Amino acid sequence: MNTACKPKQQTITIEPIPDAVILCLHDIGREGRYAISEKDFGLLLGELAAYRVVSLHDWLKRRYPEDQRRRIVLTFDDGYRAHREIVLPELRRRGMGATFFSYADQLKADAGWRRLLPALEDTFSFGSHSWSHALLRDIGYDQLFRELFLARQYMQTLSVKPVDAFAWPYGYYESEGIRAAAAAGFTVQLSVDYRIATAADAALVLPRYTIFGRRSVEQLKEILKRFEAKKPEKPDRVPRQQ
């Protein structure tokens, strides 16, 4: 039998979504339980210099495949003024990305963020933190859906990029809430489950580490130590016909 035209088998590599540490930060430039001083924020970014620091969407889209460094996903909650006045300039200077989660009530009162959103570079992305930042517990499905849907709808009018990521206020979520958020149009959900994020988590709720103000640098070092001790996933190899 003539096999001259038989397709050849070539092995290609499909890069999976790599494991990542997703960090959740709040106010910058003050001191408190969740607030981090500007000095400590600079120290945190220095600790992250050995990693590829990206937005949530760039991690999920596997951007920068040529960069072999492990991934850190930076997220900032609540839409503080310091995020645009301190955080953005520092991240731009260091070539780092991030995702910012705001809630609609806050955005309605902050003209600075509303003007900025349409001009955010691709390095940065934007997500919803609900309409009112209420603890979304013990409320019915219909009310929960309304809270999430209206927040996403409003935020989408301000952003030229899709608003498809949702961070649960206070980290609280349950199965009915996951369904409501998905029905409201969110394809990515996040909480604060204090563990390393994997590709499997992306289908449900992604875990984050909240960084606390008083010992933020020490806390980050401990997280990175655990991250380094976890072996990265190997890419799957599959044959492709030519």
Molecular structure report:
This protein is of the alpha/beta class and 242 residues long. 33% of the residues lie in helices and 19% in strands. It has a domain at 13-126 and 191-228: Glycoside hydrolase/deacetylase (TIM Barrel, Alpha-Beta Barrel). The chain contains 8 helices and 10 strands. The radius of gyration is 20 Å and the shape is globular. Residues 234-242 have low confidence and may be disordered.
Distance between the termini: 20 Å
Major sheet summary line: 6 strands, parallel
In the CATH hierarchy, the third-tier topology of the domain at 13-126 and 191-228 is known as TIM Barrel
Shape: globular
Report the average pLDDT across residues.
90
CATH architecture of the domain at 13-126 and 191-228: Alpha-Beta Barrel
Question: Which class do the helix and strand fractions yield?
Answer: alpha/beta
Q: Share of helix among residues?
A: 25-40%
The stretches of 5 or more residues where confidence is low (pLDDT under 50) are: 234-242
Radius of gyration: 20 Å
Q: What order do the helices and strands follow?
A: EEHEHEHEHHEHEHEEHE
The total strand number stands at: 10
Tally the helices.
8
CATH homologous superfamily of the domain at 13-126 and 191-228? Glycoside hydrolase/deacetylase
Oligomer classification? single chain
Strand content: 15-25%
CATH class of the domain at 13-126 and 191-228: Alpha Beta
